[in-house]
Amino acid sequence: MQTITKIATQKQAGRYNLELDGRFAFGVSENVLAKFGLIKGRQLDPAMVEAIKAADKVDQGLKIALNYLSPALRTIKQVRDRLLAKKVEEEVVDQVIDHLVAQELLNDAVYAQHYVATKQAFNPKGPRGIAMDLAQAGVAEEIIDEALMAYSTENQIEVAVKLAEKAAKTHRRDSSVIRQQKVAQALVQKGFSFDIASQAISQIDLTNDEEDEQANALRQVEKLAHHHRRLPSKDRYYKVKGALYTKGFRGEMIDWALDQIDWEEEE
């Protein structure tokens, strides 16, 4: 048996040094100190010493986990990865996770429900994008599927329309055809199905008016003509014309834009 001969505070708040039989033995947290009723003069057998040390490891792991949980919800995997990154022993990690789950401080289903709701309003995504994020965070497939049931088709279309309107502004200098293609691509990349993307696009006008389409075509002609300026005028003309077709401009618009440029080679 060993006797606690001194308990002294550490510089780190909430930590204490224990001396056994007049010699420093180990440090413990305030929680462990209270849990085991550690006071000066108490005698400890070897088994109790090991139990106290083990409890202190768990308590330190809990502190790391709770600090990580304080600003936001986390998944079990995220907390586990955090603890392992902080060099917490795997056996201790399991105990910390079990404690947090039992106290309902960790719940992947709650996390998934919250994430689905959040991603409909802030930095929105479609169901596929959300499912990928949740899977990466370690949420089980069945939990993801259940959480996504709250993301109705109507809500998906509503969110997709807002994203489509934003993307349309970004691509306003493209031809109407390419603009529509890029908006659809942006929605699919955000995790919406092609069907939802199509329904969203059908609710907004992505067709440029004639003046804007002319301005876009002329801008592309000038840019392409400059890019191919080292080619002979005839080759440059057809090179630019072909590129304009690939950019989605109509034939008559291409002819109009090409007519605005002097294709004669510089002397």
Automatic annotation (TrEMBL):
All residue ranges annotated as the RecX third three-helical domain in the record: 155-201, 211-258
* One Pfam entry name: RecX_HTH3
Top-level taxon of the source organism: Bacteria
Q: Where in the cell is it found?
A: Cytoplasm
Give residue ranges for domain RecX second three-helical: 107-148
Q: What's any GO biological process attached to this entry?
A: regulation of DNA repair
Q: Where is the RecX first three-helical domain?
A: 64-100
User: Mind telling me which GO cellular component terms the entry cites?
Assistant: cytoplasm
Keyword flag Cytoplasm? yes
Q: Does the keyword Cell wall biogenesis/degradation apply?
A: no
Query: Where does the signal peptide begin and end?
Result: none
Alphabetically sorted, this entry's keywords are: Cytoplasm
Summarize the protein's role.
Modulates RecA activity.
Task: Identify its protein family.
Answer: Belongs to the RecX family.
Name of the featured protein: Regulatory protein RecX
The source organism is Fructobacillus ficulneus
